[in-house]
């Protein structure tokens, strides 16, 4: 089945993410004068400008990211360089360009590890964990536990569970249900929606999957998330294809396509057209 569109980054090999490393110093070894402060403000302005551009205009966003990178390299500040590449990585991750995301996140990694900034380091480990699996998931999980960050812990359980469902469904589902319980406890509806999607994908009974996808949709009544909604509609469409209820399948796939076109998500577009083509064969 093609329904298993999970909420997890695609795997990208580490060697694709190797990039330039510039020697830099932590704040406590830098003379933080007025010029330094002015440049950090210019970096923040460049980053805020860059992330305002939609991903289909990322050529313009790249100009502002490069301005921020050049300024951070000029300052030779570990914190500032890490901030630029982390922001750039999250921008591409949020816009589903995983190749660019991983390149930038890996560039941020050595600087953040040197600064030992647990707040941003746990965030970085989490995003990398979605690609490199357990090594970074476990690092992120330990930091989130130290900070008593239940949302972060839940996301780590969700990622670990999603990976495990490919090889050990029972273990995978146990992690996914832990994730769901924490999201519910904190009334974090985006996470609740994501957990239901991934639990449904790991369920081998189509009727049960349909119930879970609809629970995911219900959670989104409290949190607007176009991507999760489109994934639910696509996965429901795929379920009805396998039940040979083609009219219902087309109805859900077309709903997903409307959202996908608004988001300009090419990977989702491709999967939707593949599912629609299966009906028309």
Describe the structure.
- The longest helix has 18 residues, at 34-51.
- Helix 10 (206-219) packs antiparallel against helix 11, helix 11 runs antiparallel to helix 12 (246-263) and helix 12 (246-263) runs antiparallel to helix 13.
- The chain has 13 helices and no strands.
- The two termini are 16 Å apart.
- The chain is globular.
- It is mainly α.
- The model is unreliable at 8-19 (pLDDT under 50).
Question: Would you spell out the secondary-structure blueprint of this structure?
Answer:
Blueprint: H1 34-51, H2 58-75, H3 78-94, H4 98-115, H5 118-132, H6 134-146, H7 150-164, H8 169-185, H9 189-202, H10 206-219, H11 226-242, H12 246-263, H13 266-280
Helix pairs in contact: 1-2, 1-3, 2-3, 3-4, 4-5, 5-6, 5-7, 6-7, 7-8, 7-9, 8-9, 9-10, 9-11, 10-11, 11-12, 11-13, 12-13
Our count of helices gives 13
Give the biggest beta sheet: none
Distance between the termini: 16 Å
**Bulk shape:** globular
Class by SSE composition: mainly alpha
Poorly predicted runs: 8-19
Tell me roughly what share of residues is in helical segments: over 70%
Count of β-strands? 0
Strand content: under 5%
- Average pLDDT number: 85
Order of helices and strands: HHHHHHHHHHHHH
Radius of gyration: 21 Å
Task: Jot down its keywords.
281 residues; mainly alpha; 74% helix
Nutshell version of this structure?
With about 280 residues, the protein is mostly helical.
